[in-house]
Amino acid sequence: MATETKILNCINCPLSCELTATVEDGVVTNVTGNFCPRGAQYAKEELTAPTRMLTSTIRIEGGRLPLLPVVSAKKLPKGRVVECAEALRSVSVKAPVHAGDVVAANILGLGVDIVASRDMETA
Ligand code: SF4
Question: Which of 11, 33, 60, 109 has the maximum number of C-beta atoms within 10 A of its C-beta?
Fold first, then answer.
């Protein structure tokens, strides 16, 4: 049995608790240092299948501003976030757009939509 100790900081709130995780054969078996349960859940996910939300902007035609802020509807695999951001460079929409409108469905086939994070009226 291979046992490792990993140190990481929780990113779920400004306290940034320093977490100590015990990993046995690739499975997180214990987490300490977390002030709340979210820290333990974060350590388990981060050390097995890390994910991140993606926030970015895309071009919008005819809008009051030239760029539309967008966000992933769910967390994406951390290792694919940069690739998703690059894919958004070729995406543009036409105003008006409403917050929550899907601007890129099922990005990179990952089962996650990219949605507008604000309304954008026409110019
Ligand atoms: S463990 Fe809880 S209190 Fe600590 S940083 Fe994470 S969310 Fe905040």
Answer: 60
